[in-house]
Amino acid sequence: MPRFLFRQGVDICIKNNDIIIRTPYATRSDPNRQLLRISDAEEPIKKLVKKLSQEGIESNQYRDIPKEIGSTSPNFKLWRQLKDFYRKGLLIHEISGCNGIAIRLLPINPGIKQQLCPSDNKEIKLSTFTSIQPCLEGLDITSPLTSTTLRLQDHRLYPLIQRLVAPCTLESIRLLLPEDLCSQSQDIISLFLSSGMAGICNSEQNAEIDQDAIKAGWNKQDLSFHSHTRRHIIDHYQEELLPREINEASPKARNQRIILSTVSLPKPSIDNQDINFYQVLKKRKSIRTYKTSPISIKALGSLLWHSMHTREEIICDPALTRSYEGLLRPVASAGGLHSIELYLCIKQCIGVSPGFYHYDSFDHSLGRMSDLNKSCQNMLEMAVNTTCRAPQAASISPGQGQQPDVLIVMATRYERNSSLHSETGLAYALILKDTGAIYQQLYLVATALGLAPCGLSFGSSELFEKASGISRQIECSVGEFMVGNPGQ
Ligand SMILES: Cc1cc2nc3c(=O)[nH]c(=O)nc-3n(C[C@H](O)[C@H](O)[C@H](O)COP(=O)(O)O)c2cc1C
Questions:
Q1: Does the beta carbon of 386 sit less than 6 angstroms from any atom of ligand 1?
Q2: Structural domain of residue 354, as residue ranges?
Q3: Do 303 and 189 reside in the same domain of the chain?
Q4: Are residues 108 and 229 in the same domain?
Q5: Neighbouring residues of 52: CB distance < 8 A, sequence distance ≥ 6
Q6: What is the DSSP string of 260-280?
Q7: Residues 203 and 276 in one domain
């Protein structure tokens, strides 16, 4: 029997004839859980609400109200109310068989539209954007395109998933179902469609629901990342279930690295500016060819100082329990976290011997970590190879790109962001935005200093891990930038 019942996180309060429903949902702009009020509720509605929060109700009983008697039917108001609860993401829809609950549609956001089983000549297919995660009750199917999770609790339904990877007729789905569930095949198909995990196939044999995303060229990973980090509605119930670190101090802003020796960098003098800010903006461009005379320690010191040196160590959100150490630097960073550190593969620089260095933004110095080992050479080589693919690289034919004097590698201490953003899920998205801010800062400062700047798209966490000796889960590279003295 298919059944509707309120999902977890829906709290009901009935006072006289008013029903107040506290939903599990809030928005990014208003973190309070949204309320739903039903004023002057009649007895049948009150009964319906009570049943939905206890044993649930049979979901098909109000489905077949003939259109002509529609609004005059005593059940019409109940049917309309149920539809409203469903659309608002408050109802679980589940189907049971001889093994108990077989399949459940679990809403995680409002905006769900119930879809009935289509006519027999249609074919159905799983959305290409779905993912499957095991959970204690069975398998959870999710998709970045929907507001639900579809939970398969009866393992006899698992083969269906595999079959639905290709278009399936309704009959072939029916044949796959065990006997006790076969009689409910229409409801099962309806659940797959309503959950958005499967769709009716179009002429190109794609699930219709995928069409826009396929047309726009989205891949599954990007779409998941995007929908996860740009969602407007928050499911409070799910967030409260997230594992929380108890009383764990937030990671320090300053992190010690093992270094062999230190090279102090000169602080720049600010009185020799011969180019103003607007001229810098106008002049900024990517330059990928270098003079044979290398960059100097003075220019490198100025670039790092104006881009990344730590101006001040601060305590962020001091009045809150989540207060944490932040930094102020010339470049901006979400929440003042500044989880990104700079590492430098120095091929040649007057005043600094070749090697792999960490920039100490507090002391404005370079900490030598190793010589210019094989991994650093590989990173420089990778920079050359990817340089040749740039759009305006006509001046450099493939294979003739130049290695920069210095390859700057940006690496993030993920833990800094994750400790603050465990609930928002924004940690990695904000790291990438911080990376973008650093790219632009390096571009502008390098331009002002008359250096040749060029950001890079390709980088290797593996090579960075080998060069730095730091586990890539602890600190991982997220961006690369080349600098040198500009050639013609
Ligand atoms: C995030 C980012 C990645 C880039 N990746 C590369 C790259 O891999 N290779 C390259 O030669 N240029 C790269 N560039 C430079 C762009 O190709 C360049 O900014 C673009 O062609 C516009 O030219 P302009 O910088 O001279 O205005 C990158 C720039 C940015 C901001």
A1: yes
A2: 261-484
A3: no
A4: yes
A5: 4, 5, 6, 85, 91
A6: SEEEEPPPPPSS---S-HHHH
A7: no
Mutate to test the pocket of ligand 1, among 283, 284, 402, 454 (most ligand atoms within 8 A of CB): 454
| Domain C-terminal end among 241, 275, 309 | 241
Looking at 29-43, 59-73, 114-128, 441-455, which range is the least confident one? 59-73
Which residues 6+ apart lie within 8 Å of 434 measured at CB?
332, 333, 334, 337, 338, 339, 340, 412
Query: Are residues 95 and 147 located together in one domain of the fold?
Result: yes
Co-location of 313 and 376 in the same domain? yes
Q: Is the shortest distance between the CB of 369 and ligand 1 below 6 Å?
A: no
List the CATH number of the domain containing 270: 3.40.109.10
State percent of the chain over pLDDT 70. Answer: 92
Would you say residue 134 lies in a domain?
yes
User: How far is it, in rounded angstroms, from Cα 482 to Cα 488?
Assistant: 16
Same domain, 236 and 367: no
* pLDDT band per the 50, 70, 90 thresholds, residue 52: very high
| Count: domains in the chain | 2
How far is ligand 1, taken at its centre, from the CA of residue 216, in Å?
A: 23
In tens, the pLDDT along 271-305 reads 556 789 999 999 999 999 998 899 999 999 999 99
Q: How far is the CA of 410 from the centre of ligand 1 (A)?
A: 16
Counting ligand 1 atoms within 8 A of each CB, the residue from 280, 283, 289, 457 with the most, and so the one to mutate, is 457
Q: Is the model's pLDDT at 246 over the cut of 50?
A: no
CB 405, CB 295: distance < 8 Å: yes
Rounded Cα gap, residues 461 and 459, in angstroms = 7
Q: How many helices (H) and strands (E) does the chain have?
A: 15, 24
Q: Is the CB of 286 under 6 A from ligand 1?
A: yes
Q: Does the residue 330 lie in any domain?
A: yes
